[in-house]
Amino acid sequence: MAPLLLLAQAEGGRSGLFLIIPEIHELIWGIVSFAVLAFFLWKFAGPALNRMLDARKQAVVGGLQEAEQAKQEAQGLLDDYRQQLANAKDEANRIIEEAREMAETMRQEMTAKASSEADEIVVKARAEVVAERDRALTEVRQEVADLSIDLAERVVQGSLDRETQRGLIDRYLDELERMS
Questions:
Q1: Is 84 part of any domain?
Q2: Percentage of the chain surpassing pLDDT 70?
Q3: Which of 56, 73, 142, 161 is deepest in the core (most CB within 10 A)?
Q4: Cβ(165)–Cβ(152) below 8 Å
Q5: Residue among 173, 118, 119 nearest 143 (CA)
Q6: Measured between alpha carbons, how far is 149 from 153 in angstroms, rounded to an integer?
Q7: What SS3 state is found at 21?
């Protein structure tokens, strides 16, 4: 840097300030050029820049509004989902309760049917027992009558006709039944 200063002093003995501060006519032309450039920028580039900033602002505001609307829709969907879930739980509980009631009703019906069938079986068995007893009594009577006739024939050695003897024995057995 020192060689440049020495060179500048050797040229005309002027100071090195002219390198930093321009001459007046250059300064005036610089100010006028700057003012013209500033005017054109303000007149033409400023509105375009403002339009661009307004468009950007509208885009941001629109995005925020869309985000808020999406948030509200999501909240509405969440509320709907929660309501549907609660309704589904209520419906499931109702179906389970109906199934329990139906199962209890079926159990009671089956128990009643089984009891009824068991009663019918008991009634039939008793009827069969009575019928079998009556048949057995009839057979025993017949056998007793035949044995009595055979015994009476041997004892009397006479001959009573078989039907008469059977009638006598039947009357005798009837009297025995009335006594017991």
A1: yes
A2: 84
A3: 142
A4: yes
A5: 173
A6: 6
A7: coil
